[in-house]
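Incident review: delayed structure delivery

Summary: a single-chain prediction request sat in the queue longer than the usual turnaround. Root cause was a stuck worker, restarted by the on-call engineer. No data loss occurred. The affected request and its eventual output are reproduced below so the record is complete for anyone auditing the incident later.

Affected input:
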Amino acid sequence: MKVARAVGLDQVILSTGRTSEAAVQKLLLLPEEAQVMMGDYLEYALKAAGKHGFSRIHLAGMWAKTLKCALCIPHTHVRNGALEMDQAARLLGELGLDQDSVTRMTTANTAREILQRLQKKGREDLVRAVCNKAQQYADECSGLPVIVYLVTSEAGVIVQV
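Output delivered after worker restart:
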């Protein structure tokens, strides 16, 4: 982030991995110095970006990390920020998923399976709602406007909020 500011950039891309970083960079075409691989250090990276005085943060991640962000989990590595299916299902219920489906979501083996089930049910509205919750958390942590990009390996950016 220091390098990005030193070369005069006022926006930064925080990404959880190479796939999400590449997908968002393809859209934004920002200089290479704007790309910051934050990995699992979500809250730390957001706060650091806020301290560096960027005007905007672009937060790029795949579903599991975006879901963890929506759940306000500050460190997203499974060892420190395990995603419990009950927790994810409860959030979806708060966002409008019916109770029977919430109960069924608790049986998912992975976050990816939750996403696939939502997509199969045509519930892109809930996928977007999770991204909006992630954006709210990111805004609060950084004190800056954040744009969240949900990325898949197959399709690239599928949601931008």
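Verification: The mean pLDDT is 93.
Action items: add queue-age alerting; document worker restart procedure.
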